[in-house]
Amino acid sequence: MNLTDKDRQERRAFLKQLIRIPSVKGSASARAPFGAATLEALQTFLAKAQADGFRTKVIDGKVGYLEFGPDTASAPLLAAVCHLDVVPAGDWQQAFEPQLIDGRMVGRGSIDDKGPAVAVYFGLKRLLQEGYEPRCKLRLILGLDEESGSDCMKRYTKTEQLPVAAFTPDAEFPVIHAEKGLLQFTLTLSWPETTVPADKLTLLAAHAGTRANVVPGDCHLTWQLPDGRHESETVTGVMGHASLPQAAENAISKAMEQARLRLAATGQTQPWLEFYQQQIGMCYDGRLMGLAGKDAVSGPLTFNAGVLQLDAQQARLTCDIRYPVTWDVAELRTKIRSACEPYGVQYTENHHAAPLYLAKDQPLVMILTRIYNEQTGQQAEPIAIGGGTYARSLPNTVAFGPVFPGQPGVCHQTGEYADLASLERSEAIYTEAFRQLDQAFAR
Ligand SMILES: [Zn+2]
Fold this sequence. Notes:
Bound molecules: zinc ion
Largest sheet: 9 strands, mixed
Number of strands: 25
């Protein structure tokens, strides 16, 4: 793929224009259910597409697409799925003032996911302009709610044509053919309020974590000492992502064990701390509840204790499990419930996302893998991850790029950037993907 300076300029200008729109989820209106800025990003994108000769559509202000190819209901659909909403700037002042520094476009959304959307777009535009006549419809779907639950894709799948094959450039290369199942739940234990004997050491409160999918880096404890004074204590671990808990150190688990030992030294027990030691402990694989195990496709189950709120009468712990793609979630639920029951601990499910799994010999996986290897000179195999992508929200879809192996992940971070040379390589890969998928899936 040979890009001229003018080509590059056009890509940069469009990406900058998109980054300048602060498309963070905002207050809902009838017209723009995910906030005015998200819809503005979509309309900006589709206005260019229309001017360039694509058909476009906006669906209830939640999701839209551009496409070319046969305009008939019977033509199979091939799609790339990107999103134009972004996470908040946090304390990053220049998040929405894109800057080109050393070949990198710096700004919120540059790599997650506006840059990849632009790469796919120009791939399609190239095919359109060179007069390529696909036998499938080639569509770029643009969602506006990926960062907050993907309601955009729920809306899309309700009325719009579903792809026979699709990829989402919202993760990493090579092809991700397996995404573990995700189960998030809260464990609650209440006990009668006892009047705290003034002369005994008592755990009054414990707090840690903000989200189930983050390994908490510290846990704050409040004690009442035998002399009546209060003491605060912070137990520190190492923060991390719930899908890789073994790479972090869970501060809740550490704090619960230290608290249990401290009470035991005065001859006391506490029901929640006993439960924690016997059923959760310091493990990150759910072993004590009998959950540990793995499959050959996607590796081991992971368990994260993410958020703890404990006071003098009650403990609430929110957990995040990633389970192997070939497992049955009903069996997991039963095991967790029966581990909790003897202690009077209550299980409440918050969220479940079924695993995604396409075998390595499925045409979509094989074709994308072959293209990736051809274009990069690698001999990569499809990979499995514990995290979840957009791919779960559409049938026949896998995550594919845009981050290359060895590149740092900068999504959601201050200083988020997209390396422009890498986006060009991605564009070449995505262009070829559409071309070869079209040949394979045409009827
Ligand atoms: Zn994303």
